[in-house]
Amino acid sequence: MKWTSTSPSDTWKIAAEFFQTLEIPAVIALHGNLGAGKTCLTQGLAQAAGVKEPVCSPTYTLISEYQGEIPFHHIDLYRLSGPQEALDLGLDEYLEPDGITVIEWAERVAELLPPDTIHVRLTRGTDEQTRTIEIVENPL
Predict the structure, then answer these.
(1) What pLDDT was estimated at residue 126?
(2) Domains of the chain and CATH, by start
(3) How far apart are the first and last CA of the chain?
């Protein structure tokens, strides 16, 4: 599956469409450079999961938990150095979720991810607003 977004609202609509294809529970690994739209896609997924509160980048808190119609976990590993540090934070508890776990910068813990993890690559387009969102088999 591959989509093109030209705005945050497009990305939220794409996330809602993507959400409809998920088998819950699910672990979703997001891959992309800074500013590629990972948090925006996560916000759309959270809305689709029934989360009512604002979903922000958890860069400083690392793990945010939300309750919607199903449990929703948002993890940002940007500041971590590797798998051991993630395990020390309890990442393994979120890899067998009871709802949805979305992991930004998931490549930092690639060896810990379950085999059925859904990998999504986000890339910036030629202009400031355009993003490509694609489910990929091998993101690295």
Answers:
(1) 86
(2) 2-132 (3.40.50.300)
(3) 18
